[in-house]
Amino acid sequence: MDSITIFKKALEYEKKIRDLYTSAIEIIDDERGKGIFKTLADEEQSHVDFLECSIETLKDQGSVSLKAFKTSIPETKDLLKNIESMKITIPEQMLGDVKRVLSTALKLEIETTEYYQEAFESAEGDIKKVLEKFIIIEQRHTDVVRFELDYASHNGFWLGFPEISMEVG
User: Fold this and answer.
1) pLDDT of residue 81
2) What is the CATH number for 110?
3) Strand ranges inside the chain, DSSP E
4) Could you give the CA distance from residue 148 to residue 150 in angstroms, rounded to a whole number?
5) Structural domain range at position 40
6) How many CB atoms lie within 10 A of CB 99?
7) What pTM value is reported for the model?
């Protein structure tokens, strides 16, 4: 698959997840939830913008640069450091909508990450660096969504791992 085809397919994934986050802003009444979905929607829009610009650059110049590609989502290790400050109760009446949106978002983020991984493995040249960065960023998105879903679900898991109390009872 050539670079332009890879980016056009990536654009489909990014628009789909952006649209989900944008619609969630309208569905969720909780301000914290709105803030999370707004941040993620803005992040995905920046991916759409980067990909659209990169497609044109590839057509004109045959290569693409990572200089304009940034993320506002912190690394997972930084999220974990701030877990206690992030544990703010989501109102019970919001949990159904929040969990539904987060479950869908998790599925889409995983699919998107898998697409970038497959594209990375088959790509050659400069685009590999771009795809590698997308893999890292999409994994961060997956971690954020999983973190929020685990918290909202109260299912005994945290970022996909069981929460275990080491306290002696």
Assistant:
1) 58
2) 1.20.1260.10
3) 157-158, 161-162
4) 6
5) 3-162
6) 16
7) 0.77
- Please tell me the distance from the alpha carbon of residue 103 to that of residue 100, in angstroms, as a whole number: 5
SS3 content of the chain, % helix, strand, coil (to 5): 75, 0, 25
Residue 169 is assigned to a structural domain of this protein: no
Q: What is the DSSP letter of 126?
A: T
The Cβ-side half-sphere exposure at 31, using a 13 Å CA radius, reads 0
Tell me how far CA of residue 116 lies from CA of 35, 90, 108, in angstroms.
26, 32, 12
pLDDT, residue 96, reads 54
pLDDT at 19: 96
Domain total in the chain: 1
Instruction: Round the CA-based radius of gyration of the chain to a whole number and report it.
Output: 17
> DSSP state, 73?
S
Residue 137 lies in a domain: yes
Closest CA to 83 of 146, 134, 135: 146
For residue 70, give every residue at least 6 positions away whose Cβ sits within 8 Å of its Cβ, in sequence order, or none: 46
Q: In sequence order, what are the residues at sequence separation of 6 or more whose Cβ sits closer than 8 angstroms to the Cβ of residue 8? A: 55
pLDDT along the chain (169 residues), means of 10: 92 96 86 84 93 91 76 62 50 60 92 96 89 92 86 56 47
Q: What is the pLDDT of residue 158?
A: 43
